[in-house]
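thread: overnight batch results

M.L. [08:02]
morning all. the overnight job finished for the chain we discussed friday. pasting input first so we're all looking at the same thing
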Amino acid sequence: MQLDKRDLKILHELQADNTITYRELANRVALSPSACVARVKQLEDQGYILGYHAAIAIERVRPTFVMVAEVSMASHVPDDLAQFDALLISMPEVIEVLRVNGPFDYIVKFLLSDVREWQGFAHRLLAPQNRVEKMVSHVVMQELKPFRGYPIPQR
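M.L. [08:03]
and the structure it wrote out:
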């Protein structure tokens, strides 16, 4: 599927407000409501739209202690990396993971309740079977620009 200007505008509008009605979306992208619904469905079916999510003010819901860690692995054998990937993915406290190149292998973002919870969590990550060589952690003091979506080109 080749994206055209209207498809890009639909993606932009849905990313900005996923609660928008099809009628309002259709108005913003200059399509009839039925054509707009068909385009959105096609974008979903083709894997351009992966889901719809609410932005939650998590600090109003529960205690929040956010940590970011740089993790270096002792082993780069694919099976060891896959095992560590699976561990991180299985942990609800892990809210974002990037595998990167450079002086460390992962950047991991955690949401915990407090520093005591972080200590126990860090010990679990550093268990010998996980083959972590080094982990450098950082307390997030303030999230200056939270992720709100990707820049969508407007052709």
